[in-house]
Amino acid sequence: MTPLPGLPKRVTVYEVGPRDGLQNESGLIPVEVKAEFVRQLLAAGHCAVETTSFVSPTWVPQLADAAELLAALGPAPEGVRMPVLVPNGKGLERALAAGVREIAVFGSATETFAQKNLNRSVAESLEMFRPVVDRARGAGVAVRGYLSMCFGDPWEGAVDPHVVAGHARTLIDMGVTELSLGDTIGVATPGQVVALLEALGQQGVSVGQLAVHFHDTYGQALANTLIALQHGITVVDASAGGLGGCPYAKSATGNLATEDLLWQLHGLGIETGVDLEALTRTSVWMAGHLGRPSPSRAVQALAKEITS
Ligand code: HMG
Ligand code: MG
Question: How many Å apart are CA 6 and CA 163, to the nearest integer?
Answer without folding.
Answer: 29
